[in-house]
Amino acid sequence: MRRRLAAALAVAAVAIATLTGCAAASSEEFAAGDARPLTSEEAQDLATMRLRNQDTGARAISFSLTEKGSEARFDGWYDYATAIGYGRWQSADPQLLVWNTQVAGTHPVSAATPSGDDGPAPLPIPDADQLDTAWAGGALDPSGSRRDALLSVIAQLGADRPDNPLLLQQGGALWLGTREVDGETLTVYAGPESDQVAATPAADPAAATVRYWLDSTSLLRRLDVRLGGATEWTTVTFADADGVSLPDVFTAAAGTTP
Predict the structure, then answer these.
(1) What is the per-residue pLDDT across 10-53, written as a single tens digit (0 to 9) for each?
(2) What residues are paired with 236 via a beta bridge?
(3) pLDDT, tens digit (0-9, with 9 covering 90-100), for 115-164
(4) Cβ(234)–Cβ(227) under 8 Å?
(5) What DSSP designation does 129 have?
(6) Residue 17 contacts residue 209 (beta carbons within 8 Å)
(7) CA nearest to 59, candidates 238, 216, 214
């Protein structure tokens, strides 16, 4: 069943608020004096975002993350048509990573790429028919892992129809401004903190925990998330992934999970 944008992020938002630690900083600042509630047209723009993601299918995504004092980077894809994410988790112990909205699994890089190079994750997904033996993992745990909290947020960003623009306005979503990125003008919104009507709507970008950067077609190009109540932002970049399509390996495995 489809969930509204605010409701779809609610579980991950709780986890984000309770985790601690440093996040990769974003240098972008938005003046409180510029922020304001959404117009009807802007609310429609934000409400269309998840549908645009799903219609587009696979997106190339990258982010860096600090968890328990260790630096890690992810480069890969999320296919919103099949609700599957996959790529290379580059850390002290490099792994291949696959996930959906409920589970996440890892696979030793060396077993899939014997050369041990640090290039992109191999396609097709290796050992996709051996999730129960070649992959290790379990339920996605946004409340216990910064990585899982961010993966959960990413996985929630697709839907089969637009969200309700009026509820986004009533929930406190904000227009923050526009920015030029690689020659393209992106509109930046602060996401609603709730799917309930805000008692005292306020245009305060400092209170935001999620920011969406959309292009002129309502497609998400960048996501900023505050993890663990930190003032710093963790940034996820989204780009085109021409020719990439990720199969639903979990369904294909006849109900088995990594």
Answers:
(1) 555 555 555 544 444 455 778 877 899 999 999 999 999 999 99
(2) 63, 223
(3) 556 678 999 999 999 998 999 999 999 988 899 999 999 999 999 999 99
(4) yes
(5) T
(6) yes
(7) 238
d(CA 159, CA 176): 24
Give the whole-number percent of the chain exceeding pLDDT 70.
79
Instruction: Give ∠ CA 136-95-25 in degrees, rounded to 5.
Output: 120
**What is the pTM (predicted TM-score) of this model?**
0.87
Residue 29, judged by CB atoms within 10 A of its CB (0-12, 13-18, 19+), counts as: exposed
Question: How distant, in Å, are the alpha carbons of 156, 165, 185, 193 from that of 40?
Answer: 23, 7, 20, 18
Q: Give residue 140's pLDDT.
A: 93
In the numeric block, which tokens belong to residue 98? 């696959």
Can you tell me the distance from the alpha carbon of 121 to that of 112, in angstroms, rounded to the nearest whole number?
9
Residues in the chain: 258
Place of tokens 């929630």: 156
pLDDT in the model for residue 194: 61
Q: Which among 55, 54, 61, 56 has a CA at the least distance from the CA of 121?
A: 61
Q: Is the Cβ–Cβ distance between 116 and 110 less than 8 Å?
A: yes
3-state secondary structure of 238: strand
Residue 189: which residues within 8 A CB-CB, separation 6 or more?
Answer: 38, 42, 45, 46, 173, 174, 175, 176, 211, 212, 214
Q: From start to end of 113-243, where are the E strands? A: 136-139, 174-181, 184-190, 210-214, 220-225, 234-240
The amino acid that residue 136 corresponds to is: A
* Other Cβ atoms closer than 10 A to 102: 13
